[in-house]
Structure formats: structure tokens, C-alpha cells
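Q: How would the C-alpha cells look for this protein?
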Amino acid sequence: MNSASSASRSSGIPSSSTSSSPLGSREESFPVVLPHHKLIAYSVALELLSAVRAAQVRDPKLRDESLRSAKSACLNTAEGAGRVSRPDKARSFAIARAEAGEAAAAVEIAASCGDATQGSSAEVNRIADRLVALLTGLIR
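A: Here is the predicted structure in C-alpha cell form.
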């Protein structure tokens, strides 16, 4: 190691060989953890979104509605985690719960009309049921 590299490391000034990120290598050792990352419900909401996408609903209106609702379930779960007061949290989680139900219903309707498979509908319903249960616990 040359003296310039050792001097810049000891002074706390990143050398040109370190990451171009403003935080240097700190990002790698300390990943960002936001409040919603700590919730199982958020990861289940992301699973729901993935299952809705995988359902490949053929009806454009139902596909749009199911995806928008699944995305909203994710966003409102994250919002609830970031809220401070109990009523604010409960309101966001209640909206997320309703959106999860709506996403599942849209895929279920699509399957009933032949615009998605019954298997994909069953998978979306399974995940939505778990998310609704988790969110119900967070609302109380």
C-alpha cells in the first residue's frame, strides 16, 4: 500500500480507489433499513404483487385493477409502517387490507371469466388471505 492511500484512509477521506458512492463502502456494511422493511406484512404484500403479475390476467381492465390494487397494498403497508400515531397507522393498514382484497377479487373475477387460470387465482387468494390476517393484527 502506498503512503497516499494509507494517509487518505487514516484521515477519513476516501481515496479514488473507493466506491464513487457518497457513503463509500458504508452502504455495503450498513444496508438501509426503513420502517416497512421490518414488517412481515410488507414482504407478503410484495409476494401478492408478484403473484398478481404472474397471474397474467388477459382482460386489460381487470389486469390494470389487480395490479394497481396490489401495488397500493404494498404502498399503504409501507406508509402505515412510517406513520407515528396509532390512528394514522391503523388507517393506512386498513386501506392496504382493502386493496389486498380488491387485488384478489380482480384476479378471481378474471379466472371466473376465463381470463386467468384458477390456479393463479388460488395462489393470489392464499397470499391475500395471509396479508389480510397480518394487516388486521397491525390495525388493532
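Helices lie at 3-11, 26-29, 40-55, 60-82, 86-112, 118-139.

Residues 1-23 have pLDDT under 50 and may be disordered.

Upvote if useful.
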